[in-house]
Amino acid sequence: MNVRYRPVIVITTFLLVAASCATANPPSAGTTTSSTATRASAPVTVRTTPPVTSSSSAAPATSGVPADEVSLRITGSDTVLSIDGNVTIEGLVSEPASVTVGGVNADTYGDTGGTTGFFAELSLDTGHHEVPVVATTEAGSSVSTVVTVVVDPDMTRELAYITRIDVATGTIVADYVQWLTGDEARAAAIEDGEIAEDQEPEDGYYIRNQNPRLRTISVAPDTQIVLYVCYPDTGPCLTRESVTLTVFEQLTANPASSINMEGWSWYGSGYSPYWLTILDSNVVQIEEQYLP
Question: With contact defined as beta carbons under 8 Å apart, do 36 and 211 qualify?
Fold first, then answer.
């Protein structure tokens, strides 16, 4: 069976993009990613300079506006899992600020409300890393946190629709699919009869499902589920939040309840697939795939 979009029982929120909202970083067109398991290629460099450094503690706050008046938070999960060491760390600061991640200047962007979004792409060796994130406001105050990054080439990563969540048994039921972009997406969509030969896939990607098999997979008790969400009143409108498996199961039953349960709207309303990071036959992280 080949699908362009596939509705499921679980997953995602409806996105309300506003002018003041921070933007996310979906996969770029022309990049091809599939659900096939991958292994590390042992990268050792950082995509920006100077080199990234790791520390077991964050830098202390400095003088200026009291640090407790400045909010710094990592979007998604503050524990990042990676197979090959190529990771993106991103977050939000409540005021205009510059940000360093592991000693490297992060890319920043702002909105009309004064919030600063930031992200940094790093390439780390296999192992456990404590990466300090430090934000310095225009007034000179500084606030910091630490992101844990685990690079393990024994992990695998699969893209799947989740059709069932069972907290009682600690399992999910997953239908593996492929995420294709660029020329590969177009060729596959034409081959599957989803578009004509003179057409392009909508939004530049194609989700292909050639295997109807459903897999029941164990989920680690501390697994974080990272969702794309929108804060309709205060913003931002395209950011990531993590929830527990129990909350994920509750949202599955009623996606619209997220605004009352968590204070945000859940993107997608049942259409997005998820990236499953798997170690020793257990799912150790679940991340929603952004769909334009």
Answer: no
Structure token pair of residue 99: 């940000």
Return d(Cα 18, Cα 38) in angstroms, integer.
36
Cα–Cα nearest to 254, from 238, 244, 266, 272:
266
Beta bridge partners of 266: 229
Q: How far apart are CA 182 and CA 37, in angstroms?
A: 20
pLDDT digits (tens, 9 = 90+) for 180-225: 999 999 999 999 999 999 999 988 999 999 999 999 999 998 899 9
Q: What is the 3-state secondary structure (H, E, C) of 107-120?
A: EEEECCCCCEEEEE
Token pair 């890393």 is found at: 129
What pTM does this model have?
0.75
DSSP 227-271: EEEE-TTT--SSEEEEE-HHHHHHHHH-GGGHHHHTSSEEBSSS-
**What is the phi/psi pair of residue 130, to 5°?**
-110, 105
Q: Which residue bears the tokens 């919030």?
A: 115
Q: What residue type is 129 in one-letter code?
A: H
